[in-house]
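Researcher: Final request for today, and then I'll write up notes for the group meeting. The sequence and the SMILES for S-adenosylmethionine follow.
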Amino acid sequence: MTDSEMFSRISSEIMALSAELKNAGQPTGGEALVEAAAKVELLSPDLQNCWGGPFNGQRGREAIAQELIDKLRFDAIIETGTYRGITTEWFAQHFTGPIESCEINRLYYLQAAHRLNGYPHVTLTLADSRDFLREKVRRLAKGSRVLFYLDAHWEEALPLVDELRIILGGQLDVVVMIDDFKVPFDDGYAFDDYGPGKALKLELLDFLKNSRVRLFFPQLPSSEETGAGRGVCVLSERLADDVAACMLLRGSDWRDWKLEELEHALAKMSALEGQMKDFVDRIGQKVEALAENVQALHAEAQSRQGEVESKLDRLLAQLVDQRAKSADIEARQDHSAAKLDQIVALAEEWRELLRVLVEEAAEPQQDETERALVEERTKNLELQRQVQRLEERCAWSGGSSDLAAAESSLASAHEAVQSLLQSRALGALSLLATGPRGTVLRAKKEMDRAIAALDLSKNPVVT
Ligand SMILES: C[S@@+](CC[C@H](N)C(=O)[O-])C[C@H]1O[C@@H](n2cnc3c(N)ncnc32)[C@H](O)[C@@H]1O
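Model: Predicted protein-S-adenosylmethionine complex:
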């Protein structure tokens, strides 16, 4: 927090207490607190020299005031809105005649009184500016040359029009300086605007349109002004020619200013219209250029579309071809699958067959067959022995009548053996036809042996 902020805060708090005391019916105590707050603010050099010095720190304004003082030889200077007396002090230092200033707020009045204590030609009044002006205008002699500096506009307070009516309604020869006023055609100058109908500009002074009052504004452009850069209006009726002689001001009556302002606004509008036309022309050119671009792009897009379409056709043809090939492959695959199914079915059949053969091979009938074969062999052996014995007996009898009987017995024995062997050979054949592989091999062996044994008539059976 800066020094000035700290002093301001303390002062505000004291002023709040003062208001409370006054509201509580203690006006004397309340006023004492206002004096205390003023003393606090007087302790701050920053507060006492706020706004950059006299005339809001504006050198251009200061020069105008000096020129007016120098050229018009005023009898008195009257200010409304003393505040801390900063500008009042400047007047006190640059004008030797009587200076009167009024302030409505006691907090500021006390500070200004302190500051201007050493200037005996300065009189301060604590009052509303309107009452103060009425009294001054009435008291001053007719034809007195007075410079009024009107600066009592503050927050919502705007006594300006009343002040002007009072001043201009008197019989004084006056020059009035109004602070914070809009300078026509120079928007760089700031001005006070308290809402509709309360802005400090030409319209506020339209009650002067049929008067002979002339209004003056700074020659200095706002760009060359210093400090707060606020505008000023200087007006005068009877001393207007003298004011017009000031180099730093340019003047005209209200109507001329209004007309000039309107012409200026019109010129601005025309310039704007010209700019708008240029803008529209430029936009038109851009639109045309864009349209050309769009056309070119359209043409390019069309040619590309042709290319893309032919590519698409080629791709489609390839796709159709590919699809046909795929169908062919699928058909072949189906065919192969059918063949495979057949082979699998065949394999299944063979496996089933094999299973049956294995089962049959395991069946005990084979053992039985073998046992039957052994029995048959035994029988065969027995028969062979009988045959042998008969042959021996025949050889021993030496050709007796028993011999014929013996030979016939022998022959019948032969037949018996042969039929036996034939039946064994057939059995082996049947095994060959139905048995599993092991059985088949064994059956084949049996069959070979049976076939070999079939020659028994020529070769005696030996097992
Ligand atoms: C902008 S200041 C004045 C600044 C001062 N002239 C200077 O240049 O340093 C406005 C002052 O006018 C005072 N004021 C506002 N309304 C007023 C009124 N009706 N009568 C007198 N003073 C008033 C305010 O209290 C405030 O101090």
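Model: DSSP finds 13 helices and eight strands in the chain. The two ends are 142 Å apart (CA to CA).
Researcher: Thanks, that's everything.
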